Write a sequence for this structure.
C-alpha cells in the first residue's frame, strides 16, 4: 500500500492545470483538503468498526480495495490529465532545486511529525484511561476541525502575500499543540484537538499555492510530491519518537513530541521565509499575476 504513487499531488496538479491563474484554483485546493479530512474522519471509524465486527484484517483490506479502485479511476481520467512536458523543454533538473520548495519540504517534515505523534499519543492516552475505542472519535474531531476550517477558507478570497499566510498558519499549528500538554481528560483533549485542527487545512491549502509559485510548471507534480514525501517522512519520525517517549514517560508526556515538532516547524519557517517571499522564475501562472504578487510583497 505504501508504494502507491502520490495521489494527492497528482490530483492537485490536475486542478492546477484546469484552473491555473483563476480564483477557482483556491477553491479547488480547499475542496481537496476538505475531502482529505472527510476521509480522515470516517476512515478510522469504519475501519475499526469492521475489524471489530468481522475480523481484524477487515479494515485494512477494505482500505486496500478503496485504494486500488481510486488509483485506477484517477488514472483513467484522460480529460483532466495535464499535458506532458518533454524533457528537452525544461531540462533535467529536479524541482527540489527550488529554494522555496526546499523550505516547504523541510517544514513539512516537522509538520508531519506533529500529525504522526498526535495520532500515536492520542491512542495511548485513551488507552491509559480505559477508553481505547474513543481514540478514533477524538482523532475524528481533530480532522473535523480541519474540515470546517477548509470549508470556510475555501469560501474566502484571501489577499496579501501567500508566504505570510503560510507562516501564520505554521505558527498557529505550533501554538495549538501547547494545550495538549495540559490535558487531563478525554473531553478536554477532544476540544483541544478540534481547535488545533482549525489551522491545518488553511495551511495545507496555502502550501500547495506556494508550490505552484516556486516550481516551474513542468515540474509541478514532482514539486507537490516532494511536499507529500516530506510530510510522510515526518509522520514516520513523529510516530516513532512518540512511541519511544510514551514507553519511557507515559502518554501525557508524549504530547511534548508534537509541541517540539511545532517549534521546529516555526524555526524552519522563519529561517526560510525570505526564500518564499518571491516566486521563482519559470513557475506556473501568468506574468501579470506574478508581477502583481511581487508588488504586494514589496509593499
Amino acid at each position: 500500500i505504501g508504494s502507491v504513487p502520490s495521489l494527492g499531488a497528482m490530483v492537485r496538479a490536475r486542478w492546477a492545470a484546469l484552473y491555473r491563474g483563476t480564483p477557482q484554483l483556491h477553491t479547488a485546493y480547499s475542496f481537496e483538503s476538505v475531502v482529505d479530512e472527510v476521509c480522515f474522519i470516517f476512515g478510522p471509524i469504519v475501519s475499526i468498526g469492521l475489524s471489530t465486527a468481522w475480523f481484524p484484517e477487515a479494515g485494512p483490506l477494505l482500505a486496500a480495495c478503496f485504494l486500488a479502485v481510486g488509483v485506477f479511476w484517477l488514472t483513467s481520467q484522460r480529460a483532466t490529465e495535464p499535458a506532458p512536458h518533454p524533457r528537452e523543454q525544461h531540462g533535467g533538473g529536479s524541482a527540489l532545486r527550488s529554494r522555496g520548495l526546499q523550505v516547504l519540504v523541510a517544514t513539512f517534515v516537522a509538520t508531519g511529525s506533529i500529525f504522526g505523534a498526535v495520532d500515536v499519543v492520542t491512542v495511548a492516552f485513551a488507552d491509559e484511561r480505559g477508553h481505547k475505542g474513543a481514540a478514533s472519535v477524538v482523532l475524528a474531531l481533530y480532522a473535523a476541525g480541519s474540515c470546517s476550517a477548509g470549508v470556510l477558507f475555501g469560501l474566502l478570497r484571501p489577499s496579501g502575500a501567500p508566504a505570510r499566510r503560510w507562516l501564520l498558519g505554521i505558527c498557529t499549528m505550533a501554538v495549538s499543540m501547547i494545550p495538549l500538554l495540559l490535558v487531563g481528560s478525554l473531553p478536554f483533549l477532544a476540544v483541544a484537538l478540534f481547535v488545533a485542527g482549525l489551522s491545518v487545512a488553511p495551511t495545507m491549502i496555502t502550501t500547495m499555492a506556494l508550490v505552484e509559485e516556486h516550481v516551474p510548471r513542468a515540474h509541478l507534480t514532482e514539486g507537490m510530491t516532494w511536499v507529500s514525501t516530506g510530510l510522510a517522512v515526518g509522520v514516520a519520525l513523529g510516530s516513532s519518537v512518540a512511541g519511544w517517549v510514551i514507553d519511557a514517560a507515559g502518554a501525557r508526556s508524549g504530547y511534548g513530541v508534537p509541541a517540539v515538532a511545532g517549534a521546529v516547524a516555526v524555526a524552519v519557517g522563519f529561517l526560510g521565509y525570505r526564500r518564499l517571499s518571491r516566486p521563482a522564475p519559470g513557475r506556473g501562472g501568468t506574468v501579470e499575476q506574478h508581477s502583481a504578487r511581487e508588488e504586494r510583497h514589496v509593499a
